[in-house]
């Protein structure tokens, strides 16, 4: 996966490559799909949701530019795979998932793997996680037509937020950087994610 899918497409941050090499992706994949765990496409994880393709996970992580001490908010825990990658590369991870069943399953796997720096809650992540903020980095792994305002507010100065920005049929992976009261926006590439369903995302 690392040699065929990530390195040739420009993932060159060694810490990101090491984390994706180390973490057993198959642990996050439903039993009947395990044979495709390392394949170059997204996979269903239940509740109509998907685990992202490995390359997209690596790309989003690389753009976060983690040095190791950050507090990170993830919106859309899903399988917990991206959560594990973040937990290897930053200090504290807060992750919000809409579906109880997915949050519970992810929490079980992450506990089995021994992570102690992850907190998961069930709720509408488009509101962020006010009590736990502010965050140095925020990653939204579901598509939103706009950048949820509470998430900009919960970002530290010099913080970075990455998300798939756009509507139902395709989005632009977008990096938001906050510097004082300025917001810099960088388009990265086209992508397709399930929707961010919530108050500041797609209405339920
Ligand atoms: N990072 C995940 C990808 C999961 S897909 C992984 O590696 O497996 C996106 C997830 O976002 C889904 O599980 C979906 O239920 C969740 N989601 C959608 N809207 C949400 C919201 N408003 N708050 C929290 N989670 C949300």
Measured distance between first and last alpha carbons: 36 Å
The set of bound ligands, ions and cofactors reads: S-adenosyl-L-homocysteine
Low-confidence stretches: none
Mean pLDDT: 97
Order of H and E elements: HHEEHEHEHEEHEEE
Overall body shape? globular
Helix amount: 25-40%
Largest sheet, if any? 7 strands, mixed
- Going by CATH, the architecture would be 3-Layer(aba) Sandwich
Task: Describe the structure in your own words.
With 204 residues, this protein is of the alpha/beta class. It has a single domain, classed as Vaccinia Virus protein VP39 (Rossmann fold, 3-Layer(aba) Sandwich). Helices cover 25% and strands 29% of the residues. The strands form 2 sheets. The chain has a 7-stranded mixed β-sheet. Strands 1-2 form a two-stranded antiparallel sheet. The longest helix has 13 residues. It binds S-adenosyl-L-homocysteine.
In short:
The protein is 25% helix and 29% strand. The chain has six helices and nine strands, in the order ααββαβαβαββαβββ. The strands form two sheets. The protein has a seven-stranded mixed sheet with strand order 5-4-3-6-7-8-9. Strands 1-2 form a two-stranded antiparallel ribbon.
């Amino acid at each position: 996966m690392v040699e065929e899918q990530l390195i040739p497409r420009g993932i060159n941050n060694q810490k990101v490559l090491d984390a994706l090499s180390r973490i057993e992706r198959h642990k996050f994949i439903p039993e009947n799909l395990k044979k495709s765990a390392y394949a170059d496409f997204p996979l269903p994880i239940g509740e109509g949701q998907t685990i992202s393709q490995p390359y997209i996970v690596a790309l989003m992580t690389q753009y976060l530019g983690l040095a190791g001490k950050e507090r990170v908010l993830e919106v859309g825990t899903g399988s917990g795979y991206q959560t594990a990658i973040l937990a290897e590369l930053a200090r504290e991870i807060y992750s919000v998932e809409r579906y109880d069943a997915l949050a519970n399953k992810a929490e079980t796997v992450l506990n089995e793997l021994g992570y102690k720096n992850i907190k998961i809650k069930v709720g509408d992540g488009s509101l962020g996680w006010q009590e736990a903020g502010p965050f140095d980095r925020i990653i939204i792994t579901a598509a939103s037509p706009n950048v949820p305002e509470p998430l900009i507010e919960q970002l530290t100065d010099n913080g970075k937020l990455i998300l798939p920005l756009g509507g139902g049929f395709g989005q632009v992976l977008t990096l938001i950087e906050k510097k004082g009261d300025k917001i810099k926006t960088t388009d990265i590439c086209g992508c397709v994610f399930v929707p961010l369903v919530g108050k500041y995302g797609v209405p339920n």
